[in-house]
Amino acid sequence: MLLISLAIVSFFAWLVSTLAGGGSPFMLIPLVNSIQGAASVPPVITIGMFLGNAHRIVLFWRYIDWKLTLWYTPGAIVGAMLGAYTFTQIHLDWLQLLIGVFLVISIFGFGLEQKETTFKVKAWYILPAGFVKAFISGLIGTTGPVLNAFYLNYGLVKEELIATKATHVVIIHLVKILTYGAFGILSPQIIATGLVIGLVAIPANFLGKYILNKINAQQFRSIVLATMAISGVWMLWAQRDLLAFW
């Protein structure tokens, strides 16, 4: 019954994330936590995100920005390896607080300005940004749509953003899967749960692609910004006990 619930939630999470440029893990983390415990969340989410985003690459292949991806890859590989290794040694919940604050703050520039971009982004900027994102992702399982502001300012919209981001996510999660496996983190139960999340993405991605084709760039941008805000607030709420302690 729990796996059926996970499949249903995963379908809607993938559908929403196709239209919003990410955010699906935040709908899945509480359920995965209730099924297998907090320690299983990062590897389960990693497997699911790898499979679902790999399917997105197939669907949106011709929209991938390869120049940005070439700059992204070196930093992401190193960051994912270090983050996944560090996860096996220590778990830092306070990182979610920092990411939540960043997401909430980052939308203000977009929300208060009627510009398509708030600052000019060059392709090489994503090298250090990708390293930091990948490292933190290895530690806590997901960073949410933390780089969406980067993609928007670089000029990616709709299918371009979805395709390029999916490619970047797959790079990170492949490295994390290999690292988790090397350190014995991937149990059969973790793999099975991750497979459920990833396979349900296939029909959701097809439906999301159809709907995405019906909305314009401005509507997509608004959905992305709203998702960033919601994701940031969710991360802060998830760490409310730590906030209270401070």
From TrEMBL:
Signal peptide: none annotated. It is a multi-pass membrane protein. It is found in: Cell membrane. InterPro entries: TM_pro_TauE-like (IPR002781), TSUP (IPR052017). It holds the Pfam family TauE. The keyword Cell division does not apply. The keyword Cell membrane applies. Keywords: Cell membrane, Membrane, Transmembrane, Transmembrane helix, Transport. The chain crosses the membrane at residues 44-63, 70-88, 94-112, 124-147, 190-208, 220-237. Coiled coil: none annotated. Belongs to the 4-toluene sulfonate uptake permease (TSUP) (TC 2.A.102) family. This is Probable membrane transporter protein. It comes from Plectonema radiosum NIES-515.
